[in-house]
Amino acid sequence: MDMVHDASGMGHLTINTSAVFPDSEQLKAAGFLEGWLTAERIHQHFQNMVAFYETSNNENGPAQFQFLATQEVWLRHQMNSSDTQQSPFWAYIRLLMAQFDGLVQPLHRTTSLAAASLPQRGPAARLASSAAGAEQPGAAGEEQPEAGEEEPLPLLSRVPHLTSAQLYFLCSLGDLGDITAALNRRQAMASQAASRQQGRQQAGGQQHGQQGQQ
């Protein structure tokens, strides 16, 4: 049920899968359907979140996004490592990522819209830039359906595509507060260390000058 039809203002989506299939296939299929059926709401949420981080965390934005990119690479390496194949924890992570990969598929294949609807500058704009796509519908090099031919995934034709990195950002929103705080502490410690080093250099220079005068 879409949020416009519910008094709470919240959308509801229930997907039932079949135990005939492996758990990973069930979760990937559920993720695919979620992405297909709620693509417009997902993209609206993405726009809201990049706008928030554009205005509220302008300095830390690039570090946050780089952290998430590094984290995903590490996560996928760990879950596919032979050392984690017998771990219940990593088995659960593999299932979660199967659902995430299913979510990415329909949203990554949609038709692009104009970039004007997305942030135009700053770190959040750089994260959001690929959501509009490098080419617009009808641009040179983009395949167009022939007359009478239906576009793939027509339900999504009005929604810009989102990359895997952008969806990973959305799925990590619950952790961004902690990530931001940690990055702020690291940045503050680096600034303090640089200030101390600069102070020592200045003090050394002053002592050297005094000795020269003597």
Structure report:
The chain is mainly α and 214 residues long. It has a domain at 22-134 and 157-174: Orthogonal Bundle (Penicillin Amidohydrolase, domain 1). 61% of the residues lie in helices and 0% in strands. It contains seven helices and no strands. The protein has helices at 23-37, 39-56, 61-80, 88-108, 122-128, 164-171, 173-213. The chain is flat, with a radius of gyration of 24 Å. The chain starts with 22 loop residues before the first helix and ends with a helix.
Report on the biggest sheet: none
Order of helices and strands: HHHHHHH
| Total count of strands | 0
The stretches of 5 or more residues where confidence is low (pLDDT under 50) are: 110-145, 148-154
Radius of gyration of CA atoms, rounded to a whole number: 24 Å
Distance between the termini: 84 Å
- Proportion in β-strands: under 5%
Helical residue percent band:
55-70%
Structural shape: flat
Chain-averaged pLDDT:
73
What is the CATH topology descriptor of the domain at 22-134 and 157-174? Penicillin Amidohydrolase, domain 1
CATH superfamily of the domain at 22-134 and 157-174: Phospholipase B-like, domain 2
Specify the CATH architecture of the domain at 22-134 and 157-174. Answer: Orthogonal Bundle
